[in-house]
Amino acid sequence: MEEINVQELGENIVGVLKSIYDPEIPVDIYELGLIYDVFVNEDYDVKILMTLTSPNCPVAETLPREVEEKVRAMENVKGVEVELTFDPAWSKDLMSEEAKLELGML
Length: 106
Hints:
Layout: H1 6-17, E1 35-40, E2 45-50, H2 62-72, E3 79-84, H3 97-102
Parallel strand pairs: 2-3
Antiparallel strand pairs: 1-2
């Protein structure tokens, strides 16, 4: 296992998050603005603060679990905690320009 620094691991995690898509919207969850923060400590424990497009989202059970499983499977990651929050509530303003373009909102 090759040692990498915390910042590099954080960037790799973002890459994995960009491979996970909301099943209802053809945009990855990172560009969609569902990921509020990714914390990586010196022990390579990861905490991801995320939200869903709505509290009644049909993937409320499966999407956070998919995030946790994919990040946990990464090399160098020791532990993963995914915290779901609705404060602040998700809005279209959180989407990246790329996501808005993809969805024809620009």
